[in-house]
Structure formats: C-alpha cells, structure tokens
Amino acid sequence: MDNFCCFSSQLSGGRSSYGSGKGRSHQGHTKYGFTLVKGKANHPMEDYHVAKFVQYHGRELGLFAIYDGHLGDKVPAYLQKNLFHNILKEEEFWTDPGRSISKAYERTDQAILSHSPDLGRGGSTAVTAILMNGRNLWVANVGDSRAVLSKRGQAIQMSVDHEPNTERNSIENKGGFVSNMPEIKVKVLHSYLEYETENKKLSEFLSYTFCYVVKVINPCPLIISGDVARVNGQLAVSRAFGDKNLKSHLRSDPDITSADVDGDTDLLIIASDGVWKVMANQEAVDIAKKIKDPQKAAKQIVVESLNRESKDDISCIVVRFTG
C-alpha cells in the first residue's frame, strides 16, 4: 500500500503529519518521498499532505499535495480528505484536466464556507500536482505553497505565489486593503514564540497575544521586525481556501500549469512556505538532485531550512522521475 496521509475522521478531515515516508509508482520508475516537521509556533501542526499513486479508470495517477493551514488545522484537514476526490469526480477530468481542477477548487471552497460552523474561521493554502500515466503533470495552487520542477537540473517554478502586494488591485477592487504589519517575537522564559498579527490594530494584537501566552509573570521584551503585507492587515496570502471573514476580499481560484514529463525531467519539489521563505528554487533543486532517494532528499531540504532558522511548519515532497 502506498504512503498516503489521510485517515478516517469526522467532517474536519484527516490528521496532520509528522516524520517521513516514501513510495513508488506501479508503472515505470517514478519514486517519491516526503518529510514534515512542526514549526516553533505555539499551536498544533497545521501542514497536511497527500502523496500516493492510484489506479483510476484503468490509468495510473500520482497525487501529491501540501495544504498549509492558518488559524487552525480544520481546513487543511478537510482539503486533505476531499480536494483530490472532488477533482477526480469531475466529468471532464480526462478530457480537460485544467478546467476540472479549477471547478473542483471553487466547489471545494464553497463546501468549506458552507461548513464554516464546523470548520471554524481559519483557512489554508494548497498546492496540488497530478501525474497522469507518468507523462503529463498538472499543477495548481492557491496561496504561497510552491511546486518547482527540475529539467536537466534547472529549476522551473510551476506555481504562482499569491501575495497581497502582487494582487493589490484585485483586493482593493473588492473593497479590501493591503497593509504592512510587523512580525512580533515575545520572549517568555528564555524561549521565543512567534506570532503573526491577525488584528488590524497593533494594540489589539498585543492584547490578544498576552492573553494567548497566558499569565506572563514578569515583563517580557518585544522584538518587532520586518514588514509583512497582509489582506486587511490580517492574512499574508491573497488567495486561500476558507477564511470566511475575509472571503469577500480574497480569491480561491487556482493558477494552473501543465508540463510533459520527458527524459529531461529530473524531479518535482512541492513544499510549504517554511522552505521557500529561506531557500531559492534552484537551491532546493541542487540539494535534491544530488540525492537519489527522494525521501532523503526531502529530509535534507527540511534540515537545510531548519539550519537557516525557518520557524514555520515545514513540509516537503520530492518526486523523482529519473535515476
């Protein structure tokens, strides 16, 4: 049985993943490996993944995805359980994969919003990759999780980072705004806990933070650094699943790209922004290209991200097509 992070559960979906795993196609020589590590933030792991090969209507499909949640893990868990299922049940999937993926993304988001009392006010990014018969690759994404293809060792970004500054016009045309808010580090008992601002006003955020940390006995220094563009001063991506309170100013339609997998195609890297905040596309490809075992390659990318002081949850899938 191929490794696939998805378990029976209630409406919220599966469970987040820790550790590593690997598998391979039933046809051909394609292999994959993944590694997931919880970040340093004081909340449960919010990254979920899918990695498996399946036989569907007599053809082999490789299904790979990373869902990076925020304000809770219920939305990425729901995506883990439902998004690929919704894509594959589209009538036009075999004849028009791109249109089917787009329709399924939109319908899945509508389902999440309709279940908002159960799934909460949070949301999730998504990057999905479907390998059809080992020859055709379809990548889609919303948010800033990323897919990078390597051909002859050269990195080719297959996804689009949906950041508030790059989609400012769309946000403002819908009545929203983009503002820059700082990252805040609170020193508590000699350890640093990172929080991202979720309120429009800094004072409101500080009040929320100290309530969340709970009963800080001694005054604690604040370290305020960097500017992060956010939709309505809250969310650091311009497209996402869920986020009902911001949905009127957000988009959930994916960017979709496709590529033929040929003899020049080395590997595919799918990772959450815990990798891409500290590592360039080509750097990740250079690491993975040197390691034939995709599980070990994914682990090394995660280790290097940690060495570069990535604080976020870190998830990485490497799919190796050759060698």
Automatic annotation (TrEMBL):
Which segments cross the bilayer? Answer: none
Q: Which Gene3D superfamilies match?
A: PPM-type phosphatase domain
Residues of the PPM-type phosphatase domain: 31-321
Write down the superkingdom of origin: Eukaryota
Q: Which SMART domains does this UniProt record tie to the protein?
A: PP2Cc (SM00332)
MF terms (GO), sorted A to Z:
protein serine/threonine phosphatase activity
Q: Which InterPro entries match?
A: PP2C, PPM-type-like_dom_sf, PPM-type_phosphatase-like_dom
Q: Which CDD domains does this one have?
A: PP2Cc
**What's the protein name?**
PPM-type phosphatase domain-containing protein
